[in-house]
Amino acid sequence: MLPRIDTKSAPAIAAIARGTFRRMYPGADSTLIDVLFRDTEAMFKGRYLDYLTIDMDSHDLEHTLQAALCIIKVLDGRHTAGAAPFLTSRHFELAMAAVLLHDSGYLKLRSDYEGTGAKYTFVHVLRSCAFAASYLPTVGFRGDEAEAVAGIIRCTGPRSDITHLHFTSEIEHLLGSALATADYLGQMAASDYVDELPILFAEFDESEDFLRTPAEKRFFKSVGDLIRKTPGFWEKVVLPKLNIDFQGLYRFLADPYPDGPNAYILAVEENIARARALATAPEISLDPFPKKKAKDSRSPSLPTA
């Protein structure tokens, strides 16, 4: 059993981010790290301006924190390995801003009564960029830095192709690759990933309903179809992206680097094996609207200092 950490807790992940930041940049002020985590928790819990509590069961605060935990480990591993180009403390803060806000586009205003935030699946990246542009100047980011965060966020999303995006710098491209890596692995390595596939299907289904996509044109026809396609998604879509499009940054998750075990990849492979077994089970559920199950909210752990 892998060591575990509570990814439901923003303070717990903030403590890891703060400890990693201080170790990587001795003497640097970590106040902004705490502010970003505090405000993100407020946003997702309905305590920020006119926004409602996040009403999604898969792309929720925990998913954001899982991605944050993963990108922290990527940046830490890369720093420890002495990889170039060197990332400054400000670059680390930009990465934290991007990962914490990358799914803010799923948030709904209090005046938005229709459906859940899942309806915004195919536009949530643009909404997240707009949200970041509005929020970041209030906590001290310059306009060009907010633009960079938006560029990093644009690397995520169901239809994003990082190879066709324009970046203002090599660092922005690197951080975008790190965020996209963490977005996939943070989710797919979670111990409850396979259990949550029915919930993920419900989100996809609502987004297609919102777009009025005919049933015959939907990529996933049922929960069973999603489960059956998951192994191929990992092997034919995600792995090539991780290795090529995202610059192989997942390799910095190896502990120790470069030849140690990669807890995230091993966890994903376990989940894929389970999905493959479920796909052949005759009793596989086709219910597209399951009730949310209690989550095992633990992910591979990180040292705090």
Sum up the structure in keywords.
305 residues; mainly alpha; two-stranded antiparallel sheet; globular
Largest sheet, spatial ordering of strands: 1-2
Strand runs, count: 2
Name given to the CATH architecture? Orthogonal Bundle
Q: Give the topology string: H per helix, E per strand.
A: EHHHHHHHHHHE
Rounded to the nearest angstrom, the radius of gyration is 18 Å
CATH level-4 homologous superfamily = 3'5'-cyclic nucleotide phosphodiesterase, catalytic domain
pLDDT below 50 for ≥5 consecutive residues: which ranges?
A: 286-305
- Count of DSSP helices? 10
- For this structure, the CATH topology is Catalytic domain of cyclic nucleotide phosphodiesterase 4b2b
Whole-number total of structural domains: 1
Average pLDDT confidence is 92
**Strand percent estimate:** under 5%
Tell me the span between the first and last alpha carbons.
22 Å
Question: Which CATH C-level class is it?
Answer: Mainly Alpha
- What best-fitting shape do the alpha-carbon axes yield? globular
Class computed from helices, strands and strand pairing: mainly alpha
What level of helicity do the residues show? 40-55%
Main sheet attributes: strand count, strand direction, barrel closure: 2 strands, antiparallel
In short:
Helix content is 52%, strand content 2%. The chain has 305 residues and is mostly helical.
Tell me what the structure shows:
With 305 residues, the chain is mostly helical. It has one domain: Catalytic domain of cyclic nucleotide phosphodiesterase 4b2b. Helices cover 52% and strands 2% of the residues. It has helices spanning 10-24, 31-44, 61-80, 89-101, 124-135, 143-153, 170-188, 197-210, 223-245, 263-279; strands at 4-6, 298-300. Strands 1-2 form a two-stranded antiparallel ribbon. α6 (143-153) crosses α7 (170-188), α8 packs across α9 and α9 packs antiparallel against α10.
